[in-house]
């Protein structure tokens, strides 16, 4: 039977084989994660660095597997991208994030955008724009309260169609965020060719901000470039107040990180909305 097959594949003890087998097991479990009700959406708040006001939240996918326990996205997202499960899970994620945001608005809580991470694989789909529009219609969320976070790898693949799709989404009011800025290998000029409004500086640049003078220069330059292009800037991975002070000096707009809150479940996220001003 299927269940026996799963048990068997977990018995290997040779370490390399074990890795391969663990992956195979994980893939099998991941396939069933949605039906098994094992996926959930967490939210991490973002704040205005000047006023401290809540400005938005990033939605992050969580998988609690009955067999494997909590599996981090860094492990299961690449796997989902390989076997195209990401299409199904991405759609689920988008719907749930929009639904929750609309639910908060219906309760009379402050209106903020929720941002959702989009894998390049998802953007490849011809129906992606329609899918987003359908989800907005079905949940009743206004487009301006949805942001999509994209990565540089999108542009490395030179997907022209992806740019058109992002343009179409921007036109209807969806916010486009450049995630993990500075970690890819694309040239700066592409910042101009993409319809983005927000740039997120990758947390690797924030991590050494207190210790590395050169990282301060880099972050300063990125922020000034972004501002000149009319973009606003989020610093992610902010963990201490020294970093905040440096980011303020660099004129960063928004912050997100463990200093303020780790990603939390929807109920806890709602408290941030209730405490907003
Ligand atoms: P990301 O989009 O860069 O998300 C930020 C990651 O940094 C999150 O990890 C978050 O928990 C973590 N983080 C937040 N604050 C801090 C901090 O102060 N310090 C440090 N060191 N880390 C912090 P997470 O949730 O494990 O997600 C990892 C990656 O998985 C995400 O990176 C994103 O690329 C991907 N991912 C997560 N959810 C989704 C999803 O729904 N769809 C897609 N396509 N990718 C997702
Ligand atoms: Ca992100
Ligand atoms: Ca990021
Ligand atoms: Ca990332």
What would you say this structure looks like, in words?
It comes from Sporomusa termitida. With 277 residues, this protein is of the alpha/beta class. 49% of the residues lie in helices and 18% in strands. The protein has 13 helices and 9 strands. Strands 1-2-4-5-6-7-8-9 form an 8-stranded mixed β-barrel, surrounded by 5 helices. Strand 6, helix 9 (190-193) and strand 7 form a beta-alpha-beta unit. The radius of gyration is 20 Å and the shape is globular. Bound molecules: ligand C2E and calcium ion (3 copies). One calcium ion binds at residues 58, 117, 149, 179.
Class from secondary-structure proportions: alpha/beta
The strands making up the biggest β-sheet line up spatially as: 1-2-4-5-6-7-8-9
In N-to-C order, the SSE pattern is HHEEEHHEHHEHHEHEHHEHEH
Q: Cofactors and ligands present?
A: ligand C2E, calcium ion
Shape: globular
pLDDT averaged over residues:
91
Spatial extent as radius of gyration:
20 Å
Strand content: 15-25%
Q: Main sheet, how many strands, which sense, barrel?
A: 8 strands, mixed, barrel
N-to-C terminal Cα separation, in Å?
A: 57 Å
Number of strands: 9
Total helical elements: 13
Helix content: 40-55%
Q: Low-confidence stretches at least 5 residues in length (pLDDT < 50)?
A: 1-6
